[in-house]
Amino acid sequence: MELRSILADNSQVEFVINQIRKQSKVRAVDVICAYNLFCDNNPKLDENALKRLDRAYIMCKYMEPEAEDVISMLLFHDNLRNNASMHTFMQYFSEKRYEGYHKQMTEACRNAAKTNPEKEDWTHEDCISYYIMMRVCDKMFNRLMKRINKNKAPNAKIISDAYYMAKRAHEWATRASGEPYIPYIVHPIRVAGILEEFGVESPVIAAALLHDVVEDTTYTLDDIANECGAKVARYVDAVTSVHGEYAKSLRSLEYQCDKATLDQKSVQKLVSHLNYSEDMIFALYIKAADRIHNLRTIDSMPSIKSHNKIDETQWDYLPLFKAFKLNYFVQMIEDLMWRATDIDRYTKMQAKYEDMLSRNREFLDDFKIILSTHTETEVNSHAELLGRAGYDVEICERLLTPYEVYSHIKKSGGTVGNLSKRIDKRFVPVCDIDIVADPRDDESDLDTFVTGFIKMFENKIAMTGRTIIDFNKSEKAFIFEVEDYYRNVFRCRIILRAEYEVQKKGIYLKNAGEVLEEESIDKSEKITVLLRNDKPISMPKGATVIDVAFAIHEEIGYTVKSATINDKKASIYDILQDEDKIIIEADTRRVDGVTQMDAHISHVRISWLNYVVTKRAKKKIIDFLIDKYYKFEGDDPKNESKVQTTVVETAADKILGELRSTT
Question: What is the pLDDT of residues 294-320, one digit of tens each?
Fold first, then answer.
């Protein structure tokens, strides 16, 4: 049934338009709905048609502009221009508002140069698209500034200065994610938005807007210090990777081969800045927000780049974020990484949990009302009897991420095959609830609050059919689970405000490097394996025979076919234990005493990526497979680098596609 026939009168149309205006994020379905209202010749715009109109689709998917921005672009699109009525656009969005859009669109068309010296392959239409997208970026930043000004953040002008500097520095640069019209400035704006939601100070947001300027442009730290201050420049310096300076000094091939080393040097540089002062923990916030936005848009990246980004995050940065206890960021990053590596299971998990939550939402809301009604009053009555000033109490609801749901089910003994079937209240809490207590004096401690809360629960909440089924009291928090008549389980945590903020924002470590080194030893190198000649080799816990083979030599890794562990035949996929003695058998031949790798007997498979834990093994396997697919495509090695890149990305698509199918 057509939308126009459903919305028979103007009042319904106005309702739809007003709902779209209220959307903080434009969805493709909203744009389709609104645009179809403005069409006289029924162009049948649907999701697939919108995807073909790449710029409008990209705006909906990644940039979150207002609906009117996307609709106005559609009205100007060559494929749809004659199908839409400007009169209807003016009617529902007001003449003044339409004139503003029309004027900016016209100026973009007139001002866009036919050729851009920095983008010689761009057409006039490409330049127009870029101008239009930059206008949307300005609106994104204006929306960010409105939120900042609403919160009355001090020194907000420094954020505007940083934005216009970043805008100049990244002029004509686009995101390396396959969409030629997306200005690069979108990424810094999104990173700054993540930090604004977290509630950081203005210099940190300013540094987020400039975090890639030194790395990717000709601007220097001195330029940033002169325009935005030394503090902002220090943050930018801390998060600037060393890739740029090494790329200038080394040949391209050497630079690519040494990427893993350069990644590690970048992390070491960040850690060294963290030791500078306590404020430098905010540089870690910027890096975490940068990773979050990269992971949110990872499906638009070339496959090989997305794989490297996930690998780098998992092995280099996530341990750093965990060491500083940046729980807010760690939770999001772990969830996004799982989404990027297993989107099918992630989507099913998310849908199942949302369904469970919606079916039990009324029970959750009832429980929260009871907590809000009784907790502060009853606990403070108990505190007064002890001569304490009491507490201000806040009840915070925390919905579970799909990755948390996955973790809950795994802990309950679920297997990979039946995870989605086990998403119910027997295994997964409906919700996490934080009861945050803010003491009014120094003597109102956690013990006093917990004692009063337990008495209140017995007298007021237990009688409503809710029971505490499990609890664990520590020095800094009291964690318990409540079950109601309908077997809904709510996981609750009582925590003091100061500790709540610490657990959310992290802690500053003066000896960050030493802590990371200790964690690396504790968590990664827990086993020692003995080779054929009794030579010991340290491996991460969970390492397989394949990992050891690549640790010995890449040729042994490529050709490994079997192994003997403790004098017993074993598979190359077997996980090794501490002090295991391993003898590896490989399909190799020797010529003049030198081991040669025979291309016909290499045993590398894409599925091997599921059975390795070391970065070296993973990198060597991927390099081998890319090279294999590259040769299979039959491309001439003398082709232009752009063609070679396309071949590599095609190979990576095949590799990751097959990997996901085997997971």
Answer: 999 887 777 667 777 887 888 788 888
> Which of 149, 170, 174, 173 has the alpha carbon at shortest distance from 159?
149
**How far does Cα 158 stand from its chain's mean position?**
27
Q: Give the number of other Cβ atoms within 10 Å of residue 387's Cβ.
A: 8
Active site residues: 215-216
Per-residue pLDDT, 414? 55
SS (H, E, C) 11-59: HHHHHHHHHHHHCCCCCHHHHHHHHHHCECCCCCCCHHHHHHCHHHHHH
H/E element, 295: helix 281-296
Q: What sign does the CA torsion over 71, 73, 77, 83 have?
A: positive
Pairing of strands 431-439, 489-496: parallel
The per-residue pLDDT for range 209-218, each reduced to its tens digit, is 999 999 989 8
Helix (H, G, I), strand (E, B) or coil at 492: strand
First-to-last CA distance in the chain? 41
Amino acid at 529: V
Q: State the SS3 of 517-532.
A: HHHHHHHCCCEEEECC
Indicate whether 50 pLDDT > 70. yes
Helix axes 327-341, 343-359, angle to 10 degrees: 120
pLDDT category, 632, cuts 50, 70, 90? very low
CA distance 406 to 19: 34
* pLDDT confidence tier of residue 332, bands split at 50, 70 and 90: very high
380, amino acid identity? N
Q: At what angle do helices 67-76 and 86-93 cross, to 10 degrees?
A: 170
Show the CA angle centred on residue 620, arms to residues 614 and 622, nearest 5°.
Answer: 100
pLDDT at 264: 77
For the ranges 107-116, 167-176, 348-357, 653-662, which has the lowest average pLDDT?
A: 653-662
| The dihedral formed by the CA atoms of 170, 171, 176 and 180, expressed in degrees to the nearest 10 | 160
Cβ atoms < 10 Å from Cβ of 145? 17
CA 286/CA 280 separation, integer angstroms: 10
Count the Cβ atoms, other than its own, within 10 Å of residue 121: 8
Q: How many other C-beta atoms lie within 10 A of the C-beta of residue 451?
A: 14
Cβ-proximal residues to 478 (8 Å cutoff; 6+ apart), any chain: 446, 450, 453, 471, 472, 493, 494, 495
Find the helix or strand (DSSP H, E) in which 252 lies: helix 252-257
Q: Measured between alpha carbons, how far is 390 from 633 in angstroms, rounded to an integer?
A: 72
Q: What angle do CA 26, 28, 33 make, to 5 degrees?
A: 95
Query: Mean pLDDT throughout 112-121?
Result: 62
Amino acid at site 465: G
Is pLDDT at 16 greater than 70 in this prediction?
A: no
| Cβ neighbours, 10 Å, residue 39 | 19
**Distance between CA atoms of 72 and 106, rounded to whole angstroms?**
11
Q: Can you point out the beta strands (E) in 86-144?
A: none
Instruction: Provide the edge-to-edge strand list for the sheet that holds 391-398.
Output: 391-398, 431-439, 489-496, 477-483, 467-473
HSE toward the beta carbon, residue 424, CA cutoff 13 A: 6
Supply 104's token pair. Answer: 């900016």
Q: Give the DSSP H/E element, type plus range, for residue 335.
A: helix 327-341
Whole-prediction pTM: 0.73
CA distance 26 to 140: 12
